[in-house]
């Protein structure tokens, strides 16, 4: 014969129910916090990881291209004799006009 107290049975059922309710409330609170965080971050003009990586790749390619162009310019400078300056043409001397 099993002697069970109805008080303990009710308490046990109530605790089980409360555990389920608390777990649900925890999930709901987490969902709301995530929504608020996304909303808050959305107003800050942040970029996504994909956009950041794309711009990073473009910047890296641009840097490589700049270095190649610098090397080409340096090569052109060294291959030509000293920077040739255009020859100055002598100015024509003004003729004196005799007004007498």
TrEMBL record:
Asked whether the keyword Secreted is assigned, the reply is yes
A GO cellular component annotation here is:
extracellular region
Q: Supply the PROSITE patterns for this chain.
A: NC1_FIB
Main subcellular localization, coarse class? secreted
InterPro entries attached to this UniProt entry: Fib_collagen_C, UbiK
All residue ranges annotated as the Fibrillar collagen NC1 domain in the record: 60-100
Keywords on record: Secreted
The annotated regions of Low complexity compositional bias extend over 77-89
**Residue ranges of region Disordered?**
76-100
Sequence intervals crossing the membrane = none
Molecular functions (GO terms): extracellular matrix structural constituent
Where in or outside the cell?
Secreted
This chain's protein is named: Accessory factor UbiK family protein
């Amino acid at each position: 014969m099993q002697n069970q107290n109805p008080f303990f049975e009710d308490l046990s059922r109530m605790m089980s129910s409360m555990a389920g309710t608390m777990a649900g409330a925890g999930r709901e609170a987490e969902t709301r916090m995530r929504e608020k965080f996304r909303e808050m971050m959305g107003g800050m003009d942040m970029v996504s990881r994909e956009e950041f990586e794309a711009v990073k790749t473009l910047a890296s390619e641009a840097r490589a291209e700049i270095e190649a162009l610098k090397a080409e310019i340096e090569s052109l400078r060294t291959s030509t004799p000293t920077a040739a300056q255009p020859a100055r043409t002598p100015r024509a001397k003004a003729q004196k006009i005799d007004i007498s």
